[in-house]
Amino acid sequence: MKRSYIREILESINEHTISFAGGLPNKNLFPLKQIRQVSLKVLEYPDALQYSQSQGLESLRKEISNIYTNKFNFKTNKDEILITTGSQQAFDIILKTFQTDKMIVQSPSYIGAIGAFRALKLKINSFESINYLKNTLKKSNILYLMSDFQNPNTKSYTKEERMEIEQVLKKQSSILIEDGAYSFLSFDGKISQAISSHYSNSFHLGTFSKIIAPGLRVGWIRAKKENIQKILFAKEALDLHTSTLNQMIIFEYLNTFNLEDHLKLIREDNYKRMIFLSKCFKKFLPYFDFELPKGGMFIYGKFKDIDTMNLAKQIQKLNIAFVPASVFYHDDRVSYEARFNFTNLSYKQMLKGIKKIANFIDKHKYISS
Ligand code: PMP
């Protein structure tokens, strides 16, 4: 079996590595004090350490359903939410319940989803244009996509594109898995209408990983009640339920503090970092072509004529990491594109890393004139 490139990168990263590779949020923004405070409170109750319902704590499901109804303009009740151990677990839960001959994914797509589909031995096909999707999607397929700030290429669908995709889905009645991991992370604070809000044979995924803390491993699936009931068996089989303690901590955090205030901090910090990294690129790697993202945690772009897998392997020796885009394509094609994370490094490290990559490229005359 082929080794996971991401695992290879993560294993090679040490304290000296300047890593643009992972999707790690800025740990300095974790609400540590608040989490400590609410953890002490929930630990006064023995139930915090007890088994709990497979679907997830009712109180937390209610909070999440309120977020959908009030912030996503997507009417939802607590029976339409299932709490997962990170949103990553949703792939297993859904795909162990619903049979499919093929997954249809965006090109490029989230590497963790491609990995999960491969682990389940599913066939994968991909689409770039919605027109191609129209001719490709069959009833027996399951469509996986991100509508907001796609990982890796940071694009979002316009309102018209969302409507077109909804029409394609309605024609085929295929299942939709819509991943909203970055939906809260627009720089301007706006949240776009999910395709799932107009298409009921859908599973909308969410997570607290990017907006509170990933180490707590709390995510969710939003689906119609009938589908939640169907997937509950797979959730139960996987881990009985998501950590009761962590769910209680998240619930108490949401109940005690204002998530919007925290989101504002994250959005502002992410934006400043994105602008800084984009300036580093413009100054030192002007031939790296990218569009400024409007949200999310990455800058995604293209070198003129550099196989980025090759470059990533070379600069790994200099203790610098980024993700070459071929890993985001299910067919492992050669790619000149690359993804750089801006939320995890210090400004100084970002500058140093980009300068080092530029020096390496100049020295090795990578760019043909
Ligand atoms: N979906 C996307 C698009 C992601 O980028 C990630 C994490 N990088 C996940 C899902 C999984 O996140 P988690 O399991 O931490 O909720």
Please write out the topology.
Blueprint: H1 5-12, E1 18-19, H2 32-42, H3 58-71, E2 81-84, H4 89-97, E3 102-106, H5 111-119, E4 123-127, H6 130-136, E5 141-145, H7 159-172, E6 175-179, E7 202-207, E8 219-222, H8 225-239, H9 244-256, H10 259-284, E9 288-290, E10 298-303, H11 308-316, E11 320-321, E12 323-324, E13 337-341, H12 347-363
Parallel strand pairs: 1-11, 3-4, 3-5, 5-6, 6-7
Antiparallel strand pairs: 2-8, 7-8, 9-10, 10-13, 12-13
Helix pairs in contact: 2-9, 4-8, 10-12
How would you portray this structure in words?
With 369 residues, the protein is of the alpha/beta class. The protein folds into 2 domains: 5-30 and 261-364, Alpha-Beta Complex (Aspartate Aminotransferase, domain 1); 32-256, Aspartate Aminotransferase, domain 2, CATH 3.40.640.10. Helices cover 41% and strands 15% of the residues. The chain has helices spanning 5-12, 32-42, 58-71, 89-97, 111-119, 130-136, 159-172, 225-239, 244-256, 259-284, 308-316, 347-363, and strands at 18-19, 81-84, 102-106, 123-127, 141-145, 175-179, 202-207, 219-222, 288-290, 298-303, 320-321, 323-324, 337-341. Strands 2-8-7-6-5-3-4 form a 7-stranded mixed β-sheet, with helices on both faces. Helix 5 links the parallel strand 3 and strand 4 (123-127). Helix 4 packs across helix 8 (225-239). The chain is globular. It starts with a helix and ends in a 6-residue tail after the last helix. The model has no long low-confidence stretch (mean pLDDT 95). The structure holds 4'-deoxy-4'-aminopyridoxal-5'-phosphate (PMP).
